[in-house]
Structure formats: C-alpha cells, structure tokens
Design the sequence.
C-alpha cells in the first residue's frame, strides 16, 4: 500500500464507522435485528435455547468491512474489480445471517453491507483518477486514426501567358 493512501483509508473508515455506531445507539440496527429475530424461526430450524445478538461481533464486522472496502476501493486497479468485490462482500455478509443463526447467534447484515458499500464507493471516488483516464486516453488514441489533411488532387493551373 502506498504510504500516502494510508491516511485516506483511515479517514474513510472513521467517517463510515462513527455514523454506523450512532445508528446502533439510536436503535436503527437493533430494530432490524429484532425484525430478523422474528422472521428467522419461520425459515430455519434454530437451536432450542434461541438466538442472541453479539454486539462486539457486529461492531467488529462492520468496522472491518468499512476499512477493507475503503482500502480495496483505493487500491484495486479496475473499477469493475472494485464493484465485484462490493457485490461479493454484500452476498457473503447476507449469507452470514443464516449460518450464524444455526449456531445460536443473531447477526444482522444491514450494518456491514451499508458500511462496506459506502466505504467502497468513497474509496472509488477518492482513488487516483489519472490511472483510469490515462489508460482510456492511450487506448482511444491507439484506436482512432489520425486525421490527415488531404490535398486536392487537381493539378495547379498554369499561369496564362498573353501574347
């Protein structure tokens, strides 16, 4: 990682994690977890003792997701790779909910998905734009034919001599 990008990754991570923590304390994500806790028993066979939420797991996951998405949003060379990473991370985050519920833990995926998407998009916006623009300009310059001025094929008229 380039040393100049480290403060940017830290800034993006903190910029995302602080509002996420505020949303937890204002009750947005605990309400989503409660909603999941009501619906998961309809679709899964859960342990007899029930499921319980682990706040350190939630906080740690969305913090890790935010910082890794910011870092890869800045470092991956192609934009399609950055968006593919965000899509795969969102899918795997949502997949953690039923897997952890089968083990007795309630995991709400909304905070991790939201944190990773916002941090990844900020990383894409703050990544070095000269890499994408210069490669696009050089590939466009290689494929476009150069404009050549064509001179007229008409012979020049010779000066008329009066006798």
Sequence:
């Amino acid at each position: 990682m380039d040393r100049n990008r480290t403060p940017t990754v830290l800034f993006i991570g903190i910029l995302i994690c602080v509002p996420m923590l505020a949303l937890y304390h204002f009750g947005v994500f605990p309400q989503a977890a409660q909603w999941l806790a009501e619906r998961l028993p309809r679709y899964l066979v859960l342990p007899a003792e029930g499921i319980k939420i682990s706040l350190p797991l939630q906080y740690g996951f969305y913090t890790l997701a935010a910082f890794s998405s910011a870092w890869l949003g800045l470092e991956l060379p192609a934009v399609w790779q950055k968006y593919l990473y965000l899509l795969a991370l969102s899918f795997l985050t949502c997949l953690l909910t039923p897997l952890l519920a089968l083990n007795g833990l309630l995991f709400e995926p909304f905070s991790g998905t939201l944190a990773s998407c916002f941090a990844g998009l900020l990383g894409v916006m703050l990544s070095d734009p000269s890499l994408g623009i210069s490669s696009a300009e050089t590939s466009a310059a290689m494929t476009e034919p150069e404009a050549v001025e064509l001179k007229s094929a008409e012979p020049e008229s010779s000066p008329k001599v009066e006798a």
